[in-house]
Specification:
Number of strands: 0
Number of helices: 5
Distance between the termini: 64 Å
Largest sheet: none
Structural class: mainly alpha
Radius of gyration: 37 Å
Oligomer: single chain
Strand content: under 5%
Helix content: 55-70%
Length: 169
């Protein structure tokens, strides 16, 4: 069953939001326990830390037992590969949405042209409604004529004669 473009677009946007949430959840729960890279001007990143060294320690209690979604650090290389895959998935979904947007009727028209198209469609609907009403009136007239014909035929039949012939008499 074909679905209209707007419904497909809504479905794909919903899927994109789910992907965003899933990506955020994964990134926040599986990141390796490494400090951020040094960024000039940020005092929290100005410490000299060897990023090539394996992560030190384990997540604290606040990140494991008390958190609703506990931190489960992953190997930095596996985490980076997963990040790239998640980013590609998000880009692919965004491209699919862009393709659906391009299929929307009137997307290549300006606002005045779209307004004219809407007025034309409204006029077409009004014309169809007039035709529907005319056909309805015609149907009612034909029903009345048919009723008159059937009524006339029933009055022309002599029932006493029909009953006598069917009763064998």
């Amino acid at each position: 069953m074909p679905t209209d473009v707007v419904s497909l677009l809504q479905t794909e946007v919903d899927k994109l939001m789910i992907q965003h949430f899933s990506t955020y959840s994964y990134l926040s729960q599986r990141h390796p326990l490494q400090p951020p890279r040094e960024t000039p001007g940020l005092r929290f990143t100005s410490q000299k830390i060897d990023l090539a060294a394996p992560p030190k320690g384990q997540p604290g209690e606040e990140d494991t037992t008390k958190a609703p979604y506990p931190l489960q650090p992953q190997d930095p290389q596996a985490f980076e590969e997963a990040q790239n895959e998640l980013a590609e998935d998000l880009i692919l979904k965004a491209q699919q949405i862009q393709q659906l947007i391009a299929k929307l009727p009137g997307i290549d028209q300006d606002e005045t042209q779209q307004a004219e198209d809407i007025k034309k469609l409204i006029a077409d609907v009004d014309e169809m409604e007039k035709m529907r009403r005319a056909k309805r009136r015609e149907m009612h007239q034909l029903v009345k004529r048919l009723d008159a014909v059937v009524g006339g035929m029933s009055r022309s039949i002599n029932y006493s004669e029909v009953n006598r012939n069917t009763n064998g008499g």
